[in-house]
Amino acid sequence: MPAWSIHQGDALAWSIHQGDALALLPAVPAGSVGLVLADPPYNSGGRTGAERAVQSARDKYVSGDARHDLADFAGDNRDQRSFGYWLTLVLGQGLCLARPGASCLVFCDWRQTAITSDALQAAGWTWRGIIPWRKPISRPQRDGFRRECEYILWGSYGVPIRHDTPIYLPGLVEGSQPRGRARRHITQKPVEVLRQLVRVCPEGGTVLDPFAGAGSSGVAALLEGRDFIGVEITEHYAAIARERLAATERTLERNVEAARC
């Protein structure tokens, strides 16, 4: 297992670890995590097993606005039952690392909402609700309804943490995927959406993302004053995540220095 090196800035710590979440998560100290923020491969979009087997993630999720090649990623071809069992294992491991009262937020689309809810609850999290994520730039459906929402399922480890200063978070978040050169990952989530989500973790607490992708959740965590641990199986994306978090750390340090002057 690779060493779990931590980058420690003036106030915040972060780390990105390349490998399979189920193999690497047991090395995280138990009871150290204030939020598990998971954006797993949706394993969605194929009508049959054969379609799922031949469609790559790029085939399913990349539109023409990317303007540059985006690396594919593995793990997006499971059938629904194997997806549910696998996600239960990952979220169960996350519960083992969480402090009492911690939250778990899991992204999914409309096809996988039911099985993702089952996995969250089977893993031991207390079911709390669903936060719609509205995407203003989204695909129209001929003769039907625009698919402009994905969903974030919320669970907690018992009674949710009471913050020292009460917080009131939105029941719906809104933001479009980055476009053009700003898009670094096939299924990249907007930092402005993720920043709202990580606020459920107490200030100074640790956000864990077992599917870190290009590191957007880590960027959001650092910007909101939280530590971050990310695991990403694809080497290409793990490298991008490290690059982006290091850049965010440098920006925050410059801001601190400027405030001291």
UniProtKB/TrEMBL annotation:
Superkingdom assignment: Bacteria
DNA methylase N-4/N-6 domain ranges (all copies): 34-155, 180-242
GO MF, any single term: DNA binding
EC number annotated for this UniProt entry: 2.1.1.-
Matching Gene3D superfamilies: Vaccinia Virus protein VP39
GO biological process, one term: methylation
UniProt entry keywords in alphabetical sequence: Methyltransferase, Transferase
PROSITE patterns tied to this protein: N6_MTASE
Family stated for the protein in its record: Belongs to the N(4)/N(6)-methyltransferase family.
Name under which the protein is recorded: Methyltransferase
